[in-house]
Design a protein that fits this description.
The chain has 14 helices and no strands. The chain has 245 residues and is an all-alpha fold.
């Protein structure tokens, strides 16, 4: 069996097997880092969140791949680049910081070079990166208590507007009921019956997107303001469907 056919077999096997997906991501981590380096124009460092974004996009590529999309690695590379672009746009919008690759206001060196020579606010930029990384790490730990992984948000995301509306209603109801949110955090169980009854959404619809709702409720219940700002760009590439201000 050729390498390409073996990879395709592994991708299809990983669609319904979390452990297989994790092994595939680990195996292709050098590829993921290489594609991230292409995007950044340098090797990613410990302060960069882009590798995490690319890993999520790689997993999303596994979930969405079919033979009709051509070679898997080419498809994955394209999707990773798209998600990284979305992430960078989200940073500009939500953080109010100029791109490190953009020319200076006087047409001079890019902001990234200014950071290197000390003429830009290094402490502020570093603090934002540290805060973002800390939120991601904390969210990952907290969601693990619920049996949900970060990649489940992408895997379980609704695809139809009607389903998105149902999720929006369920979240709005949960936000309006502090006691329900407290019980959710205490028991680590999604109160499907209460969400369905209180929001008017069909329970079967909510149940099909259990992991997605758990992730959103966890994000909402504990702030995670940076992640809430980036979530729509990283995973949807558009308007945030189920988190309202």
């Amino acid at each position: 069996m050729s390498d390409a056919h073996e990879l395709t077999r592994q991708v299809y096997a990983a669609k319904d097997d979390v452990a297989a997906a994790d092994r595939l991501i680990e195996k292709y981590l050098p590829f993921i880092k290489a594609e991230t380096a292409k995007f950044l124009g340098r090797l990613p460092g410990s302060d960069d969140d882009e590798v995490s974004i690319a890993m999520i996009a790689f997993h999303e590529a596994v979930e969405g791949y079919s033979h009709a999309r051509g070679a898997f690695l080419r498809y994955a590379a394209m999707l990773m680049k798209s998600r990284l672009i979305d992430y960078r746009r989200g940073q500009r919008r939500h953080q109010g910081h100029a791109s490190l690759d953009a020319p200076g206001t006087d047409g001079g060196a890019p902001a990234g070079e200014a950071l290197a020579d000390g003429s830009a606010p290094v402490g502020e930029e570093r603090a934002m990166r540290d805060a973002t990384r800390a939120e991601i790490e904390e969210l990952s730990r907290q969601m693990a208590d619920f049996g949900v992984h970060l990649t489940d948000v992408a895997d379980n995301c609704p695809r139809q507007q009607r389903t998105l509306d149902a999720c929006r209603k369920a979240l709005a109801f949960a936000k309006s009921d502090p006691a329900l949110m407290a019980e959710f955090l205490r028991t680590k169980r999604l109160p499907l019956a209460q969400l369905a009854q209180g929001s008017g959404a069909a329970r079967k619809t909510l149940e099909r997107h259990r992991s997605y709702l758990v992730a959103l409720l966890v994000v909402y219940s504990n702030g995670y303001e940076i992640i809430r700002g980036h979530l729509k760009q990283v995973l949807k590439g558009g308007a945030e469907p189920c988190v309202t201000s």
